[in-house]
């Protein structure tokens, strides 16, 4: 989806259309999503609200309504399932679809993408972009090429040429830090990356180096997994005013523990590892975890362990954010049977 949270707010509140908006808290917190109008000023998701406001003084902040985003996300997923049951959601606004065999027997993957995007617009009033290719990595990269409201096909005959000219920061899985390291090694495009041996990339980047070696050659064997395993469940709160007092802090921990229990009980999820996340006033961050042999059961368990983790903190600085998350969950992966089939593509076209 294109700037999903922000686009939902602009759709539901027409007076916001065409204006730079950020979904998130203005006084404290971070930007959850920015409209394309705000992005022109350099406003990005995960940016602090303070910095976002400095970049765009006339930025309009809108409080997030996650219940609304989930509602629309469900409608979109229902559209996906009209075409295939091999749908792997990555988040509320993004998913992989395997349409090798599809319910409507449409031969063109491009046509399927066009139909889905049109249906999403007709039923929600929102635009979506799509990437089409022979594996998840290439489809993901392609999905960003013609945003917003477009689609891009990387045809099998175009893969190697496309990847050789692709700027290294556009490769999915290469973040800002890794990109900067690659720049220092004179790696700017795919062809520069391709010139490095597997041994050299493994030495420089560890296991990720082997991933880079393969994907720059168009090799990625990840399957579309409809039953994606949830690896953690968490809650966190950014506070309007920094917290200095232990008594107030413990009240916040108790509230987080109760909220975490509520989220887990709805889905009958349990876990053995509890993690406390602390973000200080100066934006430095600290996490500490406690793993036990038996599953944590309830809010009381969370709170008791969270208190002990809090006592292990290295600094006595004012706190701006607290979070609790549970991992090492009792969910089990449902294995999928892999079948390799040919995907018919139309001639390469830019939309």
From TrEMBL:
Q: Which UniProt keywords apply?
A: Coiled coil, Cytoplasm, DNA damage, DNA repair, DNA replication, DNA-binding, DNA-directed DNA polymerase, Magnesium, Metal-binding, Mutator protein, Nucleotidyltransferase, Transferase
- Where along the sequence does the record put site: Substrate discrimination? 5
Residues forming the UmuC domain are 1-175
One Pfam family of this chain:
IMS_HHH
One BP annotation, GO: SOS response
UniProt subcellular location: Cytoplasm
Superkingdom in the source lineage: Bacteria
Grouped into one coarse class, the protein's main location is cytoplasm
Binding residues annotated for Mg(2+), in chain numbering = 93
Show the catalytic activity. DNA(n) + a 2'-deoxyribonucleoside 5'-triphosphate = DNA(n+1) + diphosphate
NCBIfam families found in the cross-reference section? PRK02406.1, PRK14133.1
Q: What does this protein do?
A: Poorly processive, error-prone DNA polymerase involved in untargeted mutagenesis. Copies undamaged DNA at stalled replication forks, which arise in vivo from mismatched or misaligned primer ends. These misaligned primers can be extended by PolIV. Exhibits no 3'-5' exonuclease (proofreading) activity. May be involved in translesional synthesis, in conjunction with the beta clamp from PolIII.
Q: Which HAMAP family match?
A: DNApol_IV (MF_01113)
Protein name (database record): DNA polymerase IV
The root-end lineage is:
Bacteria, Pseudomonadati, Bacteroidota, Flavobacteriia, Flavobacteriales
